[in-house]
Amino acid sequence: MLIIPLVPTSIIAGLLRLSDTGELKKLGVRTIGLFLFTATIAGIIGLVLGSLFSVGSGMVVGELAKREANTIGNLFAQFRAYIPSNPVRSASEMQMIPLVVFSVLLGIAAITVKTKQPEKIKPIESGFLDHDHKHHERPAQGQRPGRKLCRSIGSCHEYGRLRL
Questions:
Q1: CA–CA dist 5, 88 (Å, integer)
Q2: pLDDT tens digit string along 91-149?
Q3: Which of 123, 127, 101, 111 has the alpha carbon at shortest distance from 8?
Q4: What does DSSP assign to residue 131?
């Protein structure tokens, strides 16, 4: 149950760290490129291993041939199911894909507003990123910690006081 608030918070906070939509575009292109590359490699590995071990050679296809073929309408319905009509209900039913899609869309909307009217996004940004996170360094050996060490998104604790 703890994962439900962590997923949207980390996605939105990560997207809010981007400065503009150009960075978002570069991140999206890299992400889609990496996904396509890994999917291609996985497909090649699956085809090679399937051919090598003759997977499905003794299978009777009679029942499978009677199955209704997938259509473009079914594909669009599947994609539509990923966009939640009620994100709270998706969270309560532990549906992670609609929750991730909603978080990404909310983060993209926040970046768009941030580039056009940065003062309007300050209250939201302060809720997720309440400081600049430039105090991540641990103290040198033998020195007393004078700085803080960030332990999680949105909250900092003095180093040494909180042991995780």
A1: 11
A2: 999 999 999 999 999 999 989 888 888 888 887 777 766 555 444 455 566 665 554 44
A3: 101
A4: S
Question: Over the range 136-153, which residues count as b (16 or more CB within 10 Å of their CB) and which as e?
Answer: eeeeeeeeeeeeebbeee
The pair of three-digit structure tokens given for residue 119, joined into one six-digit string: 């003062």
- Six token digits for residue 45: 């590995």
Which residue reads 């291993």 in tokens? 49
Dihedral angle, C-alpha 13, 19, 23, 27, nearest 10 ° = -10
Task: Give the E-state strand segments of the chain in sequence order.
Answer: 148-152, 155-158
DSSP 3-state of 149: strand
